[in-house]
User: What shape does this take?
Amino acid sequence: MAAMRSGLFVEDSVIRRVNRESVLPLLGGMRALLMQIAHPQVAAGVDEHSDFRRHPVRRLRRTLLMTMAIVFGDRDTARAAARAVNQVHARVRGEGYQALDPDLLLWVHSTLVDTALVTYETFVQRLAPHEREDFYQESKLPGELLGIARDHFPERLDDFEAYIDSMITGGSVKVDARSLELAREIRRPRLRLLPGAAMIPFDVVTAGLLHPVLREQFELPWGRGHQRAFGIAVKTLPRLLALTPSVVRVWPRPGQSVNLKAVTS
Assistant: This one.
């Protein structure tokens, strides 16, 4: 058997440890999507250049698969995945926006990095301060492949967290009417086998994970019952995950690479 070609990250890197937890997109995916479309220019881009309104889950799936290819694939797979994304972005432009705008790229990338950290530490386990910093620094490489210059990133994790907060509390991120419309499609996607009520628990988790400003702007319910339900989830899910065999809980398993053709088919 041929030796596995090396990827962009070593097997024990924190970015691989965090991103292989299958629960992250399930519990944090809606948060990432809402953060993205809270930026009016990003909302315009996905609304005018994709099937987002009809199939919002597809964007999350494509994003997840490309992330897995970049983080876990060999170097050729990672670069091919990034090229595929960049080619799509090159065609996305409209009045007042273009997808290759470095500021928009940085925001979209940041929503994924921030959501991965928040969701992992809420429902899997806390990271040591140096692990959190390592995760952020490692996350810059996928961002660079997707067109963000190294000097455009906030330098350290503290700077990154300040950037996220400033974008939400006084920057370009502000939920508008289109964002609200798209959010309704995200929160109640057209899933043939599941009634809309099945998405209520994900509403609660998303509301609990979101920045309070965005939670309010997206008009997510957050009464005492919702807060209590979220608190129960935070206490019980990490215990359940700790008891779940890794063969079920993580993908790809340590030592298993990712093939671009497999994840894009």
